[in-house]
Amino acid sequence: MKIQRRVKKFVVPLNSMSDVAFLLLIFIMLVSLINYRREVKIEYPEAETAKKTSAEKNLEIWVDQQGALYLDGIPASLGAIEEGIIEAYQKAPDTRVHIIADRNTPFEYIHRVLDILQILQYRVVSFVVRDA
Fold first, then answer.
1. 87 with 49: CB under 8 angstroms?
2. DSSP result, 111-130
């Protein structure tokens, strides 16, 4: 007598695939909308004239009143800022360095950053101010 094996067919339910795809699409859209820009709370100085620049190719160096330095919102030392400037220049030579300092920050703290930029001969630098 011959014994026949039953072959079980594996069926993938396709009814819920559209639901999964829809939820995945919503998740990707929400994650892409998160703003990862970090800011340091400072009081901006005012200027009579200002020029707007594009925010896409900027390297932001923040200086607070106590002289603490931040590179794109992350605390950094002078050496780390120098490395960040070199790395940004190597990736895109037209990267603009924005120096953002509190209005009450002593100039000696800002001058340390300017010394690094002068040594590196970096010429695309902006001081960020609040619109008057």
1. no
2. HHHHHHHHHTT---EEE--B
Amino acid at 127: F
**Token pair belonging to 113:** 């950053």
The CA distance from 111 to 5, in Å, is: 84
| Residue in the structure block whose two tokens are 């300092």 | 101
Q: Give the integer Cα–Cα distance in Å for 73 and 52.
A: 20
Residue 76: both structure tokens together = 């950094």
Strand, helix or coil for residue 15? coil
C-alpha 77/C-alpha 1 separation (Å) is: 84
| Residue-level pLDDT, tens digit, the chain, 132 residues | 677 777 777 777 777 788 888 899 998 888 877 766 666 777 766 666 656 666 667 888 888 888 889 988 889 998 999 899 889 888 888 888 888 888 788 888 888 988 888 888 887 787 776 654
85 token code pair? 């400037």
